[in-house]
């Protein structure tokens, strides 16, 4: 759950910063950022945000100069996503991966792998031209492991299928789980509720 919270916190802070940079320019930096959790390798995130970061904060915050609210910009915001965003739709707004964002690169590689078979560290390592040991060490340096990223990706894909109205049993099969029980246990570990409960909440929000 702690790793999930960290990844969600980083994704939201990165999204917000990228939206501001869409209007203010790519060299814009927030005043201060607060992130829930702390990765082992913090330098890449410090370079991205370009400001001081408070790690292990109780909530995610991005502090900006209020003066930017007075700045005009003729840029058209073309995103036509609904205001109620799922985790997968939120990923669409991140405009990632960037070469220095290893976690996001891994996310995309695992997602790519699932089109061929259940995600495997051997498959991803080969595509990245690394040995499995090298990939595992690199993941460890970022406070990650292959199992957690795979589960994270599959949970987000499951949510996409839920939004399409797909049956839970079919979702479990498409994601390579041997049975619904295994899928439900993995999903609940990352989302705190069962797939059926999560899908019910989505239906209630859509009413």
From TrEMBL:
It holds the Pfam family HTH_18. SUPFAM superfamilies: Homeodomain-like (SSF46689). SMART domains: HTH_ARAC. It comes from the Bacteria. GO terms for molecular function: DNA-binding transcription factor activity; transcription cis-regulatory region binding. Keywords: DNA-binding, Transcription, Transcription regulation. This is Helix-turn-helix domain-containing protein. The lineage of its organism: Bacteria, Pseudomonadati, Pseudomonadota, Gammaproteobacteria, Vibrionales.
């Amino acid at each position: 759950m702690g790793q999930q919270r960290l990844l969600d916190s980083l994704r939201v802070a990165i999204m917000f910063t990228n939206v501001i940079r869409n209007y203010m320019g790519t060299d814009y930096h927030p005043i201060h950022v607060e992130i829930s959790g702390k990765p082992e390798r913090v330098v890449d995130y410090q370079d991205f945000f370009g400001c001081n970061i408070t790690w292990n904060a109780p909530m995610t915050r991005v502090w900006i100069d209020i003066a930017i609210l007075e700045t005009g910009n003729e840029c058209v915001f073309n995103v036509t996503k609904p205001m109620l965003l799922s985790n997968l739709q939120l990923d669409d707004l991140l405009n990632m991966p960037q070469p220095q964002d290893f976690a996001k690169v891994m996310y995309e590689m695992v997602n790519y792998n699932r089109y061929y078979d259940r995600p495997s560290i051997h498959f991803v390592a080969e595509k990245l031209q690394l040995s499995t040991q090298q990939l595992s060490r690199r993941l460890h340096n970022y406070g990650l492991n292959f199992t957690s990223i795979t589960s994270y990706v599959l949970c987000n894909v499951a949510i996409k299928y839920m939004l399409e109205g797909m049956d839970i049993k079919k979702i479990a099969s498409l994601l390579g789980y041997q049975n619904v029980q295994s899928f439900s246990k993995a999903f609940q570990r990352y989302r705190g509720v069962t797939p059926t409960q999560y899908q019910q909440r989505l239906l209630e929000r859509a009413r």
